[in-house]
Amino acid sequence: MITASRQNQRTKKQKYWQRHIEKWSQSGLSQTAYCREYKLKTKSFTYFKSRLKKKNLPVQFVQVPVEPVRAPSFLKLNIGSSFQIDIPDGFSQNTLTQVLQVLGGV
Q1: How many Cβ atoms sit within 10 Å of the Cβ of residue 4?
Q2: Do 24 and 38 contact (CB within 8 A), yes or no?
Q3: Contact 57, 67 (CB under 8 A)
Q4: Sign of the CA dihedral 55, 56, 57, 60?
Q5: What angle do CA 37, 21, 7 make, to 5 degrees?
Q6: How far apart are CA 53 and CA 48, in angstroms?
Q7: Contacts of 50 (CB under 8 A, 6+ apart)
Q8: pTM given for the model
Q9: What does the pLDDT look like over 50-61, one tens digit per residue?
């Protein structure tokens, strides 16, 4: 049977770690960096994080900005296994025609 004093001690410890876990989740720091900054043992932090998570504490999501994937600004034209031409956006049709005619004669 747990004594009132021991239960009070557990509650204080849980609140202590709960505050740190909430601060960490809002800090933007990695778990290791946060523990280093506040001089906490990483293993203890991980233990209480998983233990408190099991108690159905609210989960907080953080929006991560996503940079759009940029399409290449050129087209690669492979002619057989001998030639490869990189054609940039806004290329000159006349120049490309002349290059292809020259390569056709090779």
Answers
A1: 7
A2: no
A3: no
A4: positive
A5: 115
A6: 8
A7: none
A8: 0.47
A9: 887 777 556 677
